[in-house]
Amino acid sequence: MCAHERWKEAWRLVFESNGARMNYEVAGDSGRVLLLLHGWGGCINSWLPVIRGFQREYRVVAVDFPGFGESPEPSEGWSVTEYARLTADFIESLGEESIDLIAHSFGGRVALLLSTMIPDKIGRQILTGCAGLPSKKSASGRLSETAFHALSSVADNAFTRRVIGAERIARARDAMRGLFGSADYKNASPRMRETFQKVVSQDLTDCLPLVKASTLLIWGENDTATPQWMGKKMEETIPGAGLVVFEGAGHFAYLEQYARFYAIAHKFLLG
Q1: Is residue 116 part of a domain?
Q2: Does residue 92 lie in a domain region?
């Protein structure tokens, strides 16, 4: 079944809490919930192969964070804290005793804060290219690196072009170029510029030892947006965490080497 056909079967819904709206989709109608949290500039479509791979064994839920995909921007500039609070409310609304999750980059920031907000709700989690540790780069430098290096690496991957579609990737790259161009994201809305500044300025180091969920870290050897030292630091500080490094991969390791990612993720999540 192709990705387009599969998405016709997904349920498109909207979650609202305290005036914020978040678009989400559900694939699969039985099993434990697997929540997917995308990176900065991403959306539900960032997870297409992952959803297709896990929907037979999980009820896979993917969200568009406010300001991304089809979700409207927040009413004011948000930090990671506001995104995590909304996501925690969303998880509570699912009515599950606990869930599993996979988070990429900015989504990993949210996952780390969730670990302190609702620690008993997260069973197993995979954090890939997880952000949240302070960098020596400026905020605008981190943004450019995340938006352009990461997207370029995944866009040039043949598997990704086949699964997501070259046209969709081209549109995404054009949108990212317009949003986060050389003039420090000059075309972004003032609200999302403020949001980005708050997000990248929030140091989540203190969250690491508080994580209770079984955690697997997956990193790209050549990740320049969240360098490998960040993964090693998280492995050392998150209790019981394991780290797998994908040789030759960048910030989008889960897409660049999807077959390997799926095999490792499946074994970790489902045994």
Answers
A1: yes
A2: yes
- Reported pTM: 0.82
The total of structural domains in the chain comes to 1
pLDDT one-digit tens code per residue, 5-51: 334 445 679 999 999 999 999 999 789 999 999 999 899 999 999 99
* 182 falls within a domain: no
Residue 54 CB-half CA count within 13 A: 31
List the structure tokens of 44: 């539900």
What CATH number should be reported for the domain holding residue 98?
Answer: 3.40.50.1820
- 210, 121, 106, 66 alpha-carbon torsion, rounded to 10°: -140
Domain that residue 29 falls in: 3-137+194-270
Residue 183 lies in a domain: no
- pLDDT tens profile 157-179: 555 555 555 555 554 444 444 44
